[in-house]
From TrEMBL:
Name used for this protein in its record: NADP-dependent oxidoreductase domain-containing protein
Residues annotated for substrate binding in this entry: H107
Residue span(s) of domain NADP-dependent oxidoreductase: 18-268
Species of origin: Lipomyces starkeyi NRRL Y-11557
Site (Lowers pKa of active site Tyr): K76
Transmembrane stretches, start-end: none
Pfam annotation, one family: Aldo_ket_red
Domain of life of the native organism: Eukaryota
Oxidoreductase among keywords: yes
InterPro entries linked: AKR (IPR020471), Aldo/ket_reductase_CS (IPR018170), NAD(P)_OxRdtase_dom_sf (IPR036812), NADP_OxRdtase_dom (IPR023210)
Active site, UniProt feature: Y51
GO molecular function, one term: oxidoreductase activity, acting on the CH-OH group of donors, NAD or NADP as acceptor
Length: 293
């Protein structure tokens, strides 16, 4: 079981190995999903300003009667807030109806204006955004700060910046056997940046759970394909935030197990036959400029 399993951030704070993702879910679905997840033992909930469901997440947390300090909550700064970070966290906390978040992530390394056009780097970029995010730590509004969708190249640029005083606590990226990003994972480990895997089940690419090797392992261990994928992700040392709005699947996803070494290594190599990146923004901006597999 994943109950009680945690990783430790570079801040010393513990983050649950398994959480609930809420991307592409309506407010009504999210309220039911978060309520069910907390009831079944989840203690990490992931949301974002752009998802439009922070209010439902906050309501479910407040109504759960679980002490706030026992829940690890992540939300994210959207691209159009890069040059107004204080407003970004303020808006999120207002929606959530909570006093703080445990982890605040820069959602993408892309700074945009209110019309979703990329700001010229001479005017603003993610390094300046990070400098502003660092100031939030002393406010108590966030316990830790991190990034999302950062390649090794962008992480290195951020770490090398003179204004960077705080190493990101986490980098949340798309990770699954079709897109394992081995090199990125190693880079983050070398720099003490915890990795959180989103879309670990392949999201809308049902073919991942139909992959022969994954189906065979599910049968071998008498588990679901989703449980195999979640267990592989946790065994790699990453936290994982599978999204589901179905209470039964939410409960099943919480039941991870340990893969045998040979099976674990086999899943590490699935991408060699098929590589798929699910989330590729159509902004006319090159975000994934390196092959981290």
């Amino acid at each position: 079981m994943a109950t009680g399993r945690y990783f430790t951030l570079n801040t010393g704070t513990k983050i649950p190995a398994l959480g609930l993702g809420t991307w592409r879910s309506s407010s009504r679905e999210v309220y039911v999903a978060v309520t069910a997840a907390l009831r079944h033992g989840y203690r990490h909930i992931d949301t974002a300003l752009i998802y439009g469901n922070e209010t439902a997440v906050g309501q479910a947390i407040r109504n759960s009667q679980i002490p706030r300090e026992q829940i690890f909550l992540t939300t994210k700064l959207w691209n159009t807030y890069h040059n107004k970070v204080s407003k970004g966290i303020g808006d999120s906390l207002k929606h959530l109806g909570l006093d703080y978040v445990d982890l605040y992530l820069m959602h993408w390394p892309v700074s945009m204006d209110k019309n979703n056009k990329q700001l010229p780097e001479s005017e603003w970029d993610f390094v300046k955004t990070w400098a502003e995010m660092q100031k939030l730590i002393d406010t108590g509004l966030v316990k830790a700060i991190g990034v999302a969708n950062f390649s090794t190249k962008n992480l290195q640029r951020l770490l090398d910046a003179e204004s960077t005083k705080i190493v990101p606590a986490a980098n949340q990226v798309e990770l699954h056997p079709f897109n394992p990003q081995h090199e990125l994972l190693k880079f983050c480990a070398d720099h003490h940046i915890h990795v959180i895997a989103y879309s670990p089940l392949g999201s809308n690419t049902g073919s991942l759970q139909e992959e022969p090797s994954i189906k065979e392992m599910a049968a071998k261990y008498n588990k679901s394909a989703a449980q195999v994928l979640i267990s592989w992700a946790i065994q790699r040392g990453t936290s994982v935030i599978p999204k589901s709005v179905t209470p039964l699947r939410i409960q099943q996803n919480f039941q991870d197990f340990v893969l045998e070494d040979a099976d674990f290594e086999e899943l590490n190599c699935v991408y060699k036959n098929k590589t798929v990146r699910i989330v590729v923004p159509q902004w006319g901006v090159k975000v994934f400029d390196t092959d981290d597999n």
